[in-house]
Design a protein that fits this description.
By secondary structure, the protein is of the alpha+beta class. It has two domains: about 15-150, Four Helix Bundle (Hemerythrin (Met), subunit A), CATH 1.20.120; about 175-220 and about 235-434, paralog of FGE (formylglycine-generating enzyme) (Alpha-Beta Complex). It contains nine helices and 13 strands. Strands 11-10-9-12 form a four-stranded mixed β-sheet. Helix 3 (about 50-70) runs antiparallel to helix 5.
Length: about 425
């Protein structure tokens, strides 16, 4: 059995350094137009100060690639607790003494110098730890984009925007359905490819036939739900969802204006685009919407089968477009392209084997599944990555968003969050029994 996180075709030392450097350029570019004062302040009680994320990226890299892999002392042992996600939870990060913006940038640079020296001397081994650290930085890039969206900084500029494809295409609502036939499928990451511990072990299962939304639900469709009493009809909400909605006076998605005419896209107010997927909705809202339409949220097994399993060919395709990763702007809306969601169905080249569109990129999609380990789960390389989150409190999301870096957005990757959370770039894809 291959180790739980082993990288497929490990990068050479040169390739590993190149990938780490590309990630760092993207991280720094994200905050290039943000003032030091805005880097250091708390913009939302849900999120860390941006400067904490920067220093945390450095501390994590130093811990895994210099200290544990390179067997060298930590650069700043005195900072270990402050930048440990469990020792210092988000709620207190704005109240403790942190590195300022300049110090955080210097910390990033100094750690990277140490990392490159270790790689020069020892190579990258099987590549697992280096790939883990690389994807950790990618994931924090998306977390920082969430913070920037909540901050609504008027002068913020996101680098690397791509326009929404303008080729002719049908207009989708999110209510169009495709049939996924009953039968066996294989779920989870295979041996010999990098994956996080909660994606393993790969296992066979059987799923009854069902209907899956061809696209994510659009703004126009969700607006109809809102205007039709979606937040007033008690019968569409669970007890827990209704209590949350009432306590916080929730009447619309997290990025919509009160008059339902516009949405916030990284701090910039834009007219509500009817064809784009609705985003910044909680699991509670997603569940209520589905119930209002005689549907439900998919289980994550249903989601993964619809995204990857080509039953006619009798094999799992790890990516709908073949053996390689999607090309942002061709197969999917990823890597911060466009500065937000694209129109539903904008990337037909990335269609799943069954014809589902946009399953990778644009918006994370809530599933009905509570987060837990697959049978035979083994924590790797540390228990706190996912095992401590297993249980009834968290729901699984799949697929990635427009702000997700391409290496992270695989059909087997499992994201998770509380059902009330709306800061993530999450939307809705519905399912019905066949």
């Amino acid at each position: 059995m291959t180790s739980p996180g082993v990288a497929k075709a490990p990068r050479t030392a040169v390739q590993a350094v190149s990938a780490l450097e590309e990630a760092r350029r993207r991280t720094l570019a994200l905050v290039e137009s943000v003032s030091d004062a805005d880097l250091e302040r708390v913009h939302s009680p849900l999120m860390s100060p941006l400067v904490w994320d920067l220093a945390h990226i450095a501390a994590y890299e130093d811990l895994w690639l210099v200290h544990r892999y390179g067997e060298r002392p930590l650069l700043r042992e005195d900072l270990a607790a402050s930048y440990d996600a469990f020792e210092t939870p988000r709620a207190v990060r704005g109240d403790i003494e942190l590195l300022d913006a300049g110090q955080a940038r210097n910390y990033l640079a100094e750690v990277r110098t140490r990392t490159v020296k270790v790689i020069d001397e020892r190579g990258v081994g099987d590549g697992t730890l280096h790939e883990m650290v690389l994807r950790h930085e990618h994931q924090h890039d998306e977390t920082m984009v969430q913070t920037l969206q909540l901050a609504r900084l008027e002068q913020y500029e996101l680098v690397g925007r791509r326009p929404d494809p303008d080729s002719p295409r049908p207009s989708f609502t999110g209510l169009e359905m495709v049939e996924i036939p009953a039968g066996p499928c294989t779920i989870g990451a295979g041996d010999g490819e990098f994956a996080f511990d909660n994606e393993r072990p790969r296992h066979a299962t059987d799923v009854r036939g069902y209907l899956m939304g061809q696209t994510a639900v659009t703004n126009a469709t969700y607006l109809t739900f809102v205007e039709g009493g979606g937040y007033e009809r008690r019968e569409w909400w669970s007890d827990e969802g209704w209590a949350w909605k009432e306590e916080y006076d929730i009447t619309r998605p997290g990025d919509w204006t009160a008059d339902l005419t516009a949405e916030w896209r990284l701090g910039k107010l834009e007219p509500l685009h009817p064809d784009r997927p609705v985003v910044h909705v909680s699991w509670f809202e997603a569940e209520a919407f589905a119930r209002a339409h005689g549907a439900r949220l998919p289980t994550e097994v249903e989601w993964e089968k619809a995204a990857t399993w080509d039953q006619a060919a009798g094999k799992a395709r790890r990516y709908p477009w073949g053996a390689h990763r999607p090309v942002p702007g061709v197969h999917a809306n990823l890597d911060h392209g466009g500065g937000g969601t694209a129109s539903a169905g904008a990337y037909p080249a990335g269609a799943s084997p069954y014809g589902c569109l946009g399953m990778i990129g644009d918006v994370w999609e809530w599933t009905a599944t509570r987060f837990g380990g697959y049978a035979g789960f083994v924590a790797h390389p540390y228990r706190e990555y996912s095992e401590v989150f297993f249980g009834a409190e968290y729901r699984v999301l799949r697929g990635g968003s427009w702000a997700t870096r391409t290496p992270v957005a695989t059909p087997t990757f499992r994201n998770w969050d509380y059902p009330q959370r709306r800061q993530i770039f999450a939307g809705i894809r519905i399912t019905r029994d066949a």
